[in-house]
Amino acid sequence: MAGKISWFWNERFWLPPNITWADIRSTDEVRYPALEDLYIVFPYAVILLIIRLCFERLIGMPFGRLLGIKQSANRKPEPNTILEKAYNSVTHNPDEARLTGLAKQLDWSERQVERWFRVRRNYGRPSTLTKFSETSWRFLFYTVASIYGMMHVPSEPWFWDTKKCWEGFPYHAIEPFMYNYYFMELVFHWCLIMSVLFDIKRKDFLPNIIHHLVTVMLISFSWVCNFVRIGGLVLTCHDLSDVFLESAKMAKYANRESLTNVLFAIFAITFFFSRIVMLPYRIIYSSMVESHAIVGFFYSHIFLNGLMCVLQVLHFYWFYLISCMVYSSVVKGKVGKDNRSDDESSGESDEIVENHLNGSAKKHANNSMEINSNVS
Question: What span, in angstroms and rounded, lies between the C-alpha atoms of 327 and 329?
Answer without folding.
Answer: 5
